[in-house]
Amino acid sequence: MPPPGDGWQRVDREKNRDGKPFLDKGEQAEEKAGTKVYEIWTRPTPEETKVLAFDGDKVRKFVACPSCGYLTFTKPFVKTLKRATTRRTGEGERVQECAFCRHKCRSAWWCSLKSPNRREEEAAREEAARAVAAVAAAGVAAAAVPVVAGSCFRQGGGLM
After folding, report:
1. Residue 36, class by beta-carbon neighbours within 10 Å (0-12 exposed, 13-18 middle, 19+ buried)?
2. Strand-by-strand arrangement of the 90-97 sheet
3. What is the pLDDT along the chain (160 residues), one digit of tens a residue?
4. Three-state SS for 135?
5. What does the alpha-carbon distance between residue 138 and residue 108 come to, in Å, rounded to a whole number?
6. Phi and psi, residue 119, nearest 5°
7. Is 119 helix (H, G, I), strand (E, B) or coil?
8. Residue 21: cis peptide before it, omega within 30 degrees of 0
9. Burial class (CB in 10 A: 0-12, 13-18, 19+), 147
10. What CA–CA distance (Å, rounded) separates 34 from 27?
11. Is there a contact between 60 and 74 (Cβ–Cβ < 8 Å)?
12. Smallest Cα–Cα separation from 112: which of 75, 76, 140, 146?
């Protein structure tokens, strides 16, 4: 639906796919990520342009970037650095990255897998508890974390 007033013409996005010169690079990145869809309307008298934004189909997979403000910052995901085994706690990092300005946020994570039997499960719980305690002893504020096999823990305490 065109903006209020007469003489509005919608820019054909089949012919102008990237929206230049009407969309800035951040808005183009939002469209590429699928978080926003932009309609561009122009009129010759008085010379005016209106850009209308609508949510895209991937809007729930991104949040606003704290650096650039565009809706191109991924929701957190865990990148595995060292796989967990039945005998050793795994390591990973929680990552968020902006698809536009490349701003990144990272924090450490520890994961333990479910053990095949009760004795190994108890050993995995104890090892995960030692890992959390080691972080606290290293000067990082870590809250008491209930250590349960099959859970993931983040730096500073708390379940994932």
Report:
1. buried
2. 77-82, 90-97, 104-111, 152-154
3. 777 778 898 988 888 888 889 999 999 999 999 999 999 999 987 788 999 999 999 999 999 999 999 999 998 888 888 888 877 888 888 889 999 999 998 887 776 654 556 676 677 678 777 877 776 666 654 443 333 334 444 444 444 4
4. helix
5. 14
6. -65, -45
7. helix
8. yes
9. buried
10. 11
11. no
12. 146
10 φ, ψ (degrees, to nearest 5): -80, 135
- Token pair belonging to 48: 């005016």
Q: Which helix (H) or strand (E) holds 125?
A: helix 118-137
Give phi and psi for 154, each to the nearest 5. -110, 160
For 102, the token pair is 């490349």
The answer to whether 103 touches 65, Cβ cutoff 8 Å, is yes
3 upstream amide cis, omega within 30 of 0:
no
